[in-house]
Amino acid sequence: MKNQLFRKKSVDQILIDSHTHGSGLAKILGVRDLVSLGIAAIVGAGIFSTIGLAAYNGGPAVSLLFVFVAFACVFTALSYAQFASTVPVSGSAYTYAYVAFGELFAWIIGWALVLEYAVSNMVVAISWSQYFVSMCEGFGIYIPKWLTMAPGYAIEAHEKMLQVGADKLTGIDRIALEAYNTAPKLGDLPIVFDLPAGLITVLVTWLVYIGIKESQRASNIMVMIKIGIIIAVILGGAFFIKPENWTPFAPNGMGGVLSGIAAVFFAFIGFDSISTTAEECKNPQRDLPKAMIYCLIICAVLYVLITLVLTGMVNYTDLNVKDPLAYVFQYVGFDHMAGIISVTSVIAITSALLVFQLAQPRIWMTMSRDGLLWKKFATIHPKYKTPSFATLVTGVVVAVPALFFKMDFFVDLTSVGTFFAFILVCGGVLYMDKTGLSKKSKFKVPYINGKYLVGIGFIVAVALMFVYGQDSLREWQTLGTKDVIIHKSLVVVFWGTWLVLSILSFKQSFSLLPVTGILVNLYLMSELGASNWIIFVIWLAIGLLIYFMYGYKHSKLNKDSVSKEL
Predict the structure, then answer these.
(1) 317, 473 Cβ separation under 8 angstroms
(2) Could you list the residue range(s) of the whole structural domain that residue 184 is in?
(3) Residue 190, phi then psi, degrees to nearest 5
(4) CA distance linking residue 144 with residue 149, whole number of Å
(5) Which residues, in sequence order, are bridge partners of residue 449?
(6) Which of 333, 329, 322, 344 lies closest to 238 in space, CA to CA?
(7) Residue 368: phi, psi to the nearest 5?
(8) Same domain for 41 and 96?
(9) SS (H, E, C) 295-351
(10) Cβ neighbours of residue 121 closer than 8 Å, sequence gap 6 or more
């Protein structure tokens, strides 16, 4: 059974399968289209929403966190690019794991990608709803509050009101209480849901359903609009910068800066999603690697510049708002610019929603081809040339939770699934180098011999920890075994993994860049809360149950091996 769980697909076999099953997809995407889709995915809810909270916690120094996370993503993007040039099919990290680690890991990654694409789209849809409601109010159109938010907000606000009184409520709590009081009731339960989030998901799903060409055109237009407005924010905001707002640069220390990791990383999620369109590219082996690197560099530069502008225009303590870009221009009295940003942000977030809604069905389509999901998921629409059934299911999976769940429930959870996928892709490149698969790659991660460098880095990091990390070490001494397991187990895993990779790099002369990608992503993972990991483990358990009940038996590789035995 062990051999069957880790059975691998060869690159040649995957390419043959894609030609057999995937000929119905339209090949129309070039480098410019791919870069546009990548920017559409990356520049969305992150820069228009979560960037404010990250700046509030970390101060102006959060700009360095964007550099650090972009640095981490570069190593991962290089690994993705090598796989994309070797295995130019729609499965993204799922297919790459099938080649490198075998079927069980491929399933786990495919299941984790549901968190990255489908669950992150729930965040994007909810964020879109917030901006849309604000934009409508700017034009004098007021949607009833009970139609604009998750019921959890209204119920929590009502409970707070009972404890402290209505006069003590501010911000979102005051709005949520209004939703609770004005909502129609089913018995004692208020009927509250986020209608705009559900509707935009349905509309975008329809656009993705009717064709890749239509989606690409819509994405290109929306990307040009939002990049234009972001450049306008940077150039226009530069005239309102007060250098004293950058002091202190890191008011809450490194702890405050690193607390924004989930929000900042969420702002970068998406560069890998373009690998799911490989079978709709004109020349995927040449164009996908270029597009991933281009869109990552462009977005990193924009993020750093806009963070410096925001924290220079207003004090970081004023940025804990849901629409920071519009807020800073209202703050300096430039209301017309704030209004333009509010409208543009709706367009920007729509484009991010479109790309993720495009990516998820293609993952399910590829898993279905391999027999791990029901055959219906691989259905290609005869007219529109899209994975029709998988697209409709994605629409339902995203729209229903977006109607009823709070946004903060999903943000960290999305990052957990993505980090997991990124680590396996970086590890997969090491496997390709060891087995000689890299010889088939038209793009390769630049090789830097890590034989000694990985181990030297480990020794230096330990030494720096003892010199500069005394506060952290004293905290460890106060923790009991239970606290270490719950809150610090991933930190232990990080240092243990670095030690193991140091030894393996010395023995196998591992390439330094993929190893660095593994370590940086694992470190970022260790900064996420324990509750997210508990939910992620539960999610994986559900996925493994589905695999062993259906996928293991119906796997195409399993059927091929059985037929050979007969």
Answers:
(1) no
(2) 151-192
(3) -75, 140
(4) 10
(5) 511
(6) 329
(7) -65, -40
(8) yes
(9) HHHHHHHHHHHHHHHHHHHCCHHHCCCCCHHHHHHHHCCCHHHHHHHHHHHHHHHHH
(10) 201, 353, 356, 357, 360, 398, 402
Which region holds residue 115: left if phi is over 0, alpha if psi is between -120 and 50, else beta? alpha
More confidently predicted of 26 and 180: 180
Predicted TM-score of the model (pTM): 0.78
Number of C-alpha atoms within 13 angstroms, CB side, residue 518?
A: 25
Residues 6+ apart with CB under 8 A from 229: 340, 341, 344, 348
Q: Same domain for 408 and 550?
A: no
- Quick one: 270 and 394 in the same domain? yes
Rounded to an integer, what distance in angstroms lies between the CA atom of residue 554 and that of residue 542? 18
Q: What is the pLDDT of residue 287?
A: 83
Segment 312-359, tens digit of pLDDT: 888 888 877 666 777 788 778 777 777 777 787 788 788 778 877 887
Check: CB of residue 14 under 8 Å from CB of residue 84.
no
> Residue 186: phi, psi to the nearest 5?
-110, 90
Number of domains in the chain: 3
Q: How far apart are CA 510 and CA 504, in angstroms?
A: 7
Eight-class DSSP state of 447: P
Amino acid type, 298: I
CB 95 within 8 A of CB 366: yes
CA distance 442 to 306: 35
Q: CA–CA separation, 484 vs 491, rounded Å?
A: 9
